[in-house]
UniProtKB/TrEMBL annotation:
Source taxonomy: Bacteria, Pseudomonadati, Pseudomonadota, Alphaproteobacteria, Sneathiellales
PROSITE patterns in alphabetical order: ABC_TRANSPORTER_1, ABC_TRANSPORTER_2
This protein's UniProt keywords: ATP-binding, Nucleotide-binding, Repeat, Sugar transport, Transport
Name of the protein described by the UniProt record: ATP-binding cassette domain-containing protein
Entries under SMART domains matching the protein: AAA
Amino acid sequence: MDSRPLVQVRQAVKTYGSTRALSGVTLDVHSGEVVGIVGHNGAGKSTLMRVLSGLEGPDSGTIEIDGVTTPPGSGYPGVRMAYQEGSLALELTVKENIFLSSAGWMPRWRWHGPAAEQAIARLSEIFPNHSIRPADYVDDLPLADRQMVEIARATITDDLRVLILDEPTESLSGGAVEHLYNYVRKVQDAGLAIILVSHRLKEILSVCDRVAVMKDGAVVKIYPAGDVSEQGLFDAMGGEVAVEEKNDVAEKYAFDGSRPVTVRIPMAMVDGRPTEIVACEGEVIGLAGIAGQGQEKVLDRLWHRKRGDVEVSDKCAYVPGDRQRSGILPIWNVAENLSITALSRLAKRGIRQIDKEKLLVAEWVDLLNIRGGAEAEITGLSGGNQQKVIVARAFASEADTILLDDPFRGVDVHTKVELYQLIRTEAEKGRTIIWYSSENSEMQHCDRAYVLRAGRVAGELHGAEITDERMIAMSFAESEELTR
Ligand SMILES: Nc1ncnc2c1ncn2[C@@H]1O[C@H](COP(=O)(O)OP(=O)(O)OP(=O)(O)O)[C@@H](O)[C@H]1O
């Protein structure tokens, strides 16, 4: 490792209005090193990354990257970032996006061919199993594919020295995560400095050389990855809740099947037998399996009810994981975003009850620790805090069925534990929860889980049976129909 750090941050401060997003960060990153950044939602991680990429300058303090202290307009030379919220133009194709971010060195004429070649070469290098085509419109791609393009785009440049990955795996499936980290190790060996921001502490500990813990806008601890455990990181972030034991919840609440059916979705035949997904009042049902096997289509059928072939209550609420496209209402503040679904329930003879609305918002802001508060502009919130508002909006409604489409992307570990408990409490009140998660381990909080494969039901697991091993085994089941 070089003795002189490639990246040197000293006492960096950044404020937005009255919010002190960075309150004096000091950090070094060396060439050939992977440094992890962890911390609660709103701790300042993305702000630090934006400052490091030169997208925004600090109010005070210094940043030096590869000897450069004042970046030119395009940011620090050699520093590229894959953004948490995605930076791709949705209405353009994959190759057009690649061209736009490589305009400095890509030919200005006849660039379609080179841009397409670069896109495919890099996507295939990082994610060998991808099925993305250069002419695909980004808006038509599933979230996981968009994330892959975002990552590939960041690495396509001729002078990469520092690669910043801001929550890169939140929407990737297990296989793609593994491929990404293989690529990270490869470029690390080639001498790049990599900064990895993630809430997935296991991934951080397995990939990084050192881990920096951020709290309230500062780096409060830095550990060699081999010297700290998940619990240690959790504690350093300022944790109050212990990491939950696997299967704890599912075993405690094993379902007896005596309650009324509230949701029924006919599914395709498997081995000559009709199959369906059924949920009862008070049940938490998981839609498991490898990402992209039809789980989101099931939620879409329940939410839009276009074909009239599903049974589900009209009082349905939906929590999207893709908050940029279908989640936040950007011109409204937190309170308005949160209470919109509850207005009619809280109104009295058609007249809004402002006090009740305020109380409801205050309760949710407090319960989920939404940093920024009720009056903040939603777009000024950190990614994880925006996601909490969308979750709160669904649970604050009067819906009796809640559809969760990978809802906790970017939410920090402590809040996730609170949310798992919330789901359980709401189910006990009689709500039905249908939950898709790209994180297999989350399915262990369900009463039952249907494992989907190629749009079909490959199997059903109950309570303590919902383990990683069983879900993976079912995902690769050798049923003739499923392997076709
Ligand atoms: N453009 C902005 N305008 C106003 N406030 C902002 C802006 N960007 C960030 N903030 C505030 O700065 C603080 C730090 O936000 P940041 O996005 O850096 O957190 P984070 O650690 O990345 O969180 P997450 O884990 O949720 O992504 C938050 O309180 C956030 O509301």
